[in-house]
Amino acid sequence: MRVLEQAAPLAYQESYDNAGLQCGNPQLEIKGVLIALDCTPAVVDEAIARGCNVVVAHHPLIFKPLKRLTGANEVEQTLLKAIKHDIALYAAHTNLDNVRHGVNRKLASKLGLQNLRILAPKSGTLGKLITYVPPTHADAVLQALYDAGAGQVGNYSQCSFRMEGTGTYTPGAGTNPFQGTPGQPETAQEQRVEVLLPLHLQGAALRALRGAHPYEEVAYELLKLENVHQDVGSGMVGELPEALSPQEFRARLRAALGVPVVKYTEFAQPIKTVALCGGAGSFLTGKARAAGAQAYVTGDLKYHEYFAAEGQLMLCDVGHYESEQFTSEIFRDLLTSAFTRKFAVLIAETLTNPVRYDF
């Protein structure tokens, strides 16, 4: 769970979502992991047959609140079977959609897109931590904050700002000040140190600050920022190595994703800039147009949503399952790199896509 949530923090899931451990004991000793896009009774059966006691899925099995557990529907049947056979169920859903190296990055790589950036970066996920440190300890405090995940700005690490200043204080009775005498006003040279940090790491950053700071009472300010986080958000946009005609681009989609059908809107211009969003992404059509994309690839478009293209780009609906089918590769790569030879990590052979095509 720590490995998965370091890559896709639960704090980045949408408010309606239910990512994380859905069923099972967090202390369970793992025998094998089965990875699937969806968790169904057939997937749990496959996990049992293949000796796996953990199922990692993209879509949460428990999405809406359960009022009872009687096996009345497929969700309840799946959950009962998992509990009976001591199988833990874990889901990383919109939190994996919303990170730069997640679902949309994988889809973009399958299409060969370059110069990738988040289509709709999120705001309200960053904070600024300010503290005041003796110059002799500023480097040590900053290093502790960096190690806790602060100071990252895009592809730049160990980012900070420092400013010299003068601090004043009077230590109280019974204190053990770093500098000065209890009961006597004191003036000290200090550095004001500022770093950015993802807000979900504030607990770790504050523990690191207190551990490295020489003062008994650490003065700090933690401010929530409205800045967008350029590595967190919905969708992705990038460029093809060379422009393609709309027909050539749709052929590329079918070949890269192995899809039998692409539903699309008419568009006559060459395709160079492509926006995409795995799953149901109609809410980003306007963002795709604003980003200058000539094509927007997603799934689950309804009839009237196709009109949102307004002739300014080609909307391509490849299907919900089809746009997220490679998510299993993300889970596999994360787990196999972190736990080499610890336990089997298998991709499910069960097809969970409920949609079939008749030609």
| C-alpha end-to-end distance | 43 Å
Low-pLDDT segments: none
What percent strand? Answer: 25-35%
The gross shape turns out to be: globular
Mean pLDDT: 97
What is the quaternary state of this protein? single chain
Instruction: Determine the structural class based on helices, strands and strand pairing.
Output: alpha/beta
Give the helices and strands as they follow along the chain: HEEHEHEHHEEHEEHEEHEEHEEHHE
Main β-sheet, spatial strand arrangement: 5-10-12-13-14-11
Main sheet makeup: 6 strands, mixed
Count of DSSP strands: 15
- The percent range for helix content is 25-40%
User: What's the gyration radius in Å?
Assistant: 25 Å
* Count of DSSP-assigned helices: 11
